[in-house]
Amino acid sequence: MSEQPDSPRGDQISAGDVSGSKGIVVGSDNQVEIIEDNRTIVNNYFSSETEERKPFMVPPIPAKSVQRPDDITVLTKLLIEPGDANHSVCIQGMAGSGKTVLTIMLCHCIDVLEAFPDGILWATLGTDPSYLAQQQSWAEAMGYPSELLNVMDPADRANRLRALLRGKRCLVVIDDAWQTDHVNYLTLADPEVGATLISTRVGDVARRASERYEINMLPEDLSLAVLDQWSGGIAEDEHEKARELAQRLGYLPVALALAGAQIDDGWSWDDLLDAFRDQQGAELSILDFDDPQLRGESLTLTFTLSLQRLEDELEDRFIMLGAMAGAGESPFTLQGLQAVWDVERRDAKKSAIRLVKAGLLSEYGDVKDAYFLHALLTDFARACARGEVENHSINSRLYQAAIDRHTDHYLNLARESALHWQETELELSQIRCAQDRTDPDDIDQLFEWARALSVYLMRRGQLAAQMDWARRLLEAAHRAGDRRREAWAEHELGYILDKLERDQEAREHYIRSLDIRIQVGDESGEAQTRSGIGQLHAQQQEYDKALDQYQMSLTIRRSLGDQIGESIILENIGEVFENNNDFEQALSNYRESREIKQRVDYAGGFGYSYNNSGRVLMKMGRLEEAFAELEMALAFFRQVGDKPGEAATLWNIGLIHQRQKAHQEAALCLNSALNIYRMMDRPEADEVERVLADVITQLDQSE
C-alpha cells in the first residue's frame, strides 16, 4: 500500500464521537434518570468489541437543559408505536420554543435507542440548506460514501438512500425544516426502514407528517426551573416576580435562559420586569400570553436587553458572530473567535466567558474552549449587522472584515488539516460555511480549498467530498482556460476513481492530466501523474509498463530534488518487486524509502513505510519482525487520522494472528478493518470479509 503525494486521500459520526454534558434518559417505565455523562449510555448501546458501530449524528445535550419528561414520554410513544408504514413525527413550535433541544433529548432516550438499533441520522436545515451535502453526509455515515457520487438529482439521491437503508431500523432526524421539498429529499422512511422525526416552525411542513406534536411554550413549572437555573436561584420572595416574568417571556426557553442570565449578571427582578411592562403594558390578560406575536416581541426584547448590558466593544463582537455558522451542531473554537474578532487569545477567552454568562453564547458539550451560537441568536446577530435592529448595529466594513477573517482562518485550518485533523473534524461546519462563500468562478480560491483539504479528505476516506471539489475546480479551470489547474483536477479525479476501482475512468483522467502537464512543462506534475498511471498498470499486473512509468517518475523526482516524491516512488517500485516475489529487493526499497522520510522528517508517510515492510516480512515468514513493524504503522496512521492506512494495517495484523492460530485476536483485527472499509465503501471490504469468515470458521472448529 503506497501513498501518493499532493493527491486527495469523513469518518462516520459514531457513538464514540458523541460529546455532551448531563442529560436525561427516559425508560419504558417513564422514570427519568439523570445521566452525568450522556456518552456512556450511547457508547454502551451502539458499540462493542465485535459489532459494527452505528451512526449517531445527534449533537450533545446543551448545558442547563431542563428535563421535559411529559413531552418525551408522548413523543417516544409516537415514534416507536407508528400508526402507518411511512411513519413521521413532527415537533412544531415557534422560534425559541425549545424544539431542537427536545429533539436532542429524545434521541438520547434509551427506548428510542433500542427502537432504532441501526443508528440515528441527523440534519439541520434552516432557511437555505445544502440538502445535497446532507444526503452525502448520511450516505457516508451509513458506510456508502461513493453511492451518490454520480447522482446529481436530489430526488434520485433520496431514492438511492432509501434503497440503501431498506431493511435497517434507523431514525432520520430533520431539524429546523422550512420547506416541504427539502423534507421530501431527506425523508427516507419506508415500510422496512424506521421513522422520521422533524422539527419545524412552519405549519405546511408539520401537516405533512403522520403525527404532529406542538410545543409552543413550556409549562409554568418548567419555565420557572429554567429561570432558576440561569439566574442562580429564585429567592422565596421573588417567586411572584419570576412567575410574571415567565409569562411576559411567553414561556419560551431561549428567552427564559437569557432573562435568567441577565438576573445573574446584576439586573434586579423589578428592573427587568419594568422593561417588559414599558413595552407590553402594565397589565396583560391570559389571552395576551397566548399571542405568538407577543411572544416573538418578548424574544426580540430579551435579545436587545441582553445586548444593552454589554459594553460597545463586546456588543460589536457578538454581532461579528453572525459570520459564524450557527446552531448546536456547528461548534467553533477559541481560535475561531480570535480570528473573527482579531484579538489575542486572552482577550477572546475573556469575551467568550462574558457572552456565555450573558446567555448569548453556549459552550459545546465538554470540549474545552469550544462554543456554538443558537440559530436564533445567529439570525439576530446578522439582523444587527444588516442594520435591522434599532440602536444595535455595526459598521458594515467592520462586519465584512470579520467575515473575511472567518474565511481566511478556516482556509488556513483546512491547509493544516493533515496535521490537525481532530480540530478540522470538530469545525467542519465552519469550514463548509467559509467554503460556501467561494465564487464558483474564482479559480484561485477554488484551487486553494481543493488543495488544502485533499490530504485530510483522503485520510478520512471522504472520496465523495474530494470528487465534488475536483469536479468544481475542473469546471472552473475549463472556463478560465487555466491549464495547470485543469491538469491538477484531472489528476485528482484519476486518483479518486482509482481508489474506487473504476480503472478505465481513472486512466482517462490520468492521460488527460499527463498530456496537459507535458504541454505546459509541469515536471513535478508529470512525475506525479506517471506514478498514478504506473499504479494502474501494477493493479492490472502489467509490471513492465508499471516500472517504465515509475522509473520516468523517479528520474524526474531526483532531478528536481524532491526527496519525498522519491521516497514514495521507491515504495511503488518495491510493491512491483513484492508482487514478483522478490521480497528481499522489496524490503530494501521500503527501508530506503523510510530512511529518506526520516531524513526530511516526513512523518505523514511513516505509516506506509512501516506497513509495507511489515507486510513483506510477514510474507517472508518473519512474523515477530513483521508484527513490530505493523504496530509502528498502526500508531502512525492513528496519529494522523489516516483511516485507509489504519484499515490496511489492521488487516495485515489480523493475517499474522491467523497464521499464529490466534483466531480470536485475528477476528477482532479483521472485523475492525472490515468496519473501516465498509464505512468508506471501499472494495477491499469484500476480501477482508472473506478472510474473516475463514477465521470465524477456524475459531468455531478450535472450540
Structural summary, described in words:
Strands 4-5-6-3-7 form a 5-stranded parallel β-sheet, sandwiched between helices. Strands 8-10-9 form a 3-stranded antiparallel β-sheet. The chain has a two-stranded antiparallel ribbon with strand order 1-2. Strand 5, helix 7 and strand 6 (195-200) form a beta-alpha-beta unit. The chain has 703 residues and is mainly alpha-helical. The protein has 34 helices and 10 strands. Helix 16 packs across helix 19 (396-415), helix 24 runs antiparallel to helix 25 and helix 26 runs antiparallel to helix 27 (543-560).
Topology at a glance:
Blueprint: E1 23-26, E2 32-35, H1 38-46, H2 69-80, E3 88-92, H3 99-107, H4 110-115, E4 120-124, H5 131-141, H6 154-165, E5 171-177, H7 180-186, E6 195-200, H8 203-207, E7 211-214, H9 220-231, H10 239-248, H11 253-264, H12 269-280, H13 286-289, H14 292-308, H15 312-320, E8 332-333, H16 334-341, H17 345-357, E9 362-363, E10 370-372, H18 375-385, H19 396-415, H20 421-426, H21 428-436, H22 443-459, H23 463-480, H24 483-499, H25 503-520, H26 523-539, H27 543-560, H28 563-579, H29 583-600, H30 606-619, H31 623-640, H32 643-659, H33 663-679, H34 684-702
Parallel strand pairs: 3-6, 3-7, 4-5, 5-6
Antiparallel strand pairs: 1-2, 8-10, 9-10
Helix pairs in contact: 5-6, 9-10, 9-11, 10-12, 11-14, 16-17, 16-19, 19-21, 19-22, 22-23, 23-24, 24-25, 24-26, 25-26, 26-27, 26-28, 27-28, 28-29, 29-30, 30-31, 30-32, 31-32, 32-33, 33-34
